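Section 5: illustrative case.
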């Protein structure tokens, strides 16, 4: 009888260990491949001019500094897409957040990826993110702040 009880206890111990291992593995995968923490910046309101109807989605890429923001704004002015609204660089908190501009379409989700096509030669150590957009096309320029800072890059493809 003692042998049967020991055998049952050993089997239960092994099964509980396997279940615990699977649970910990799933929790780690969810943490690594989960969603990026981001929120819309409501203090800044920008619009695309009514003459320039958005035909699709245009995003800025992840902006980590004032210099990145200035380059992005200069490139948009080069393509004759000035924004309507008040925009000053002082409104952005680049010490604590990265930012992303999405022109004409909201971002619903940013999902972490372990690997993309650029990962093999990317030496920045930043994690690629896949961006999932909303369906509605508008004249609004959505600005999102991303945390933690200097951790993510846009997926290349």
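Designed sequence:
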């Amino acid at each position: 009888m003692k042998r049967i009880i020991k055998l049952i206890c050993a089997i239960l111990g092994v099964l509980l260990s396997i279940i615990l291992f699977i649970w910990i593995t799933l929790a780690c995968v969810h943490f690594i491949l989960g969603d990026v923490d981001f929120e819309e910046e409501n203090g800044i309101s920008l619009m695309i001019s009514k003459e320039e109807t958005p035909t699709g989605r245009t995003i800025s890429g992840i902006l980590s500094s004032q210099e990145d923001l200035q380059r992005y704004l200069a490139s948009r002015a080069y393509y004759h897409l000035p924004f309507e609204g008040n925009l000053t660089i002082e409104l952005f908190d680049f010490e604590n957040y990265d930012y992303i501009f999405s022109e004409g379409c909201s971002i619903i989700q940013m999902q972490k990826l372990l690997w993309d096509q650029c990962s093999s030669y990317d030496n920045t150590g930043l994690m690629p993110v896949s961006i999932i957009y909303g369906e509605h096309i508008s004249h609004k320029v959505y600005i999102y702040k991303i945390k933690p800072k200097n951790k993510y890059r846009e997926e290349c493809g």
